[in-house]
Backbone:
């Protein structure tokens, strides 16, 4: 008699579990930022713009001007505001971390984390390292947080936490949040 009840109870529990909305989970994927492998769209003595491959074809435009880099993302890049950069002269690190969410039932990018190497204004030498967290949301793609990678041992984890908690809901009219200790500039 116990075996006859166990099967229907197990089936009912499975149906109940499948009917409940799944909590969003997050994962990381990585792509290289290698401008030699990107398509040059525009270049002159004052800067350049490259079209680069992103996560599974997600479009990226990398721009450099006045010794500062910026990245724009998305399938409607022309409708997005100009790319953001940092105040100090800077260069991009070699890898880009994509934060992916399965909230929609499939893994989609919701944020990126990029390491910027920032120059000391006195010497011009790259001395700082800032992790820039950018939310990816149509019409609302912007920097949401800056983490000093040298001042925080857990900088990468801090960046992932911010991306997972705030991407998609951050108000781009606000200044990006400084997370943790910050001595980069």
Residues:
């Amino acid at each position: 008699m116990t075996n006859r009840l166990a099967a229907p109870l197990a089936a009912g529990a499975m149906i109940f579990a499948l009917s409940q909305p799944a909590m969003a989970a997050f994962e990381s994927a990585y792509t290289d930022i290698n401008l030699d492998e990107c398509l040059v769209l525009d270049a002159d003595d004052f800067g350049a713009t490259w079209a680069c491959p992103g996560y599974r074809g997600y479009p990226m435009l990398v721009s450099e001007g006045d010794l500062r880099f910026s990245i724009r993302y998305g399938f409607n890049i022309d409708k997005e505001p100009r790319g953001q950069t940092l105040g100090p002269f800077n260069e991009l690190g070699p890898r880009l971390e994509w934060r992916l969410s399965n909230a929609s039932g499939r893994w989609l990018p919701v944020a990126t984390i990029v390491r910027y190497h920032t120059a000391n204004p006195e010497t011009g030498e790259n001395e700082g390292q800032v992790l820039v967290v950018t939310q990816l949301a149509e019409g609302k793609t912007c920097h949401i947080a800056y983490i000093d990678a040298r001042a925080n041992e857990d900088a990468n984890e801090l960046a992932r936490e911010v991306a997972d908690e705030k991407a998609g809901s951050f108000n781009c009219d606000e200044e990006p949040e400084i997370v943790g200790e910050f001595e980069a500039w």
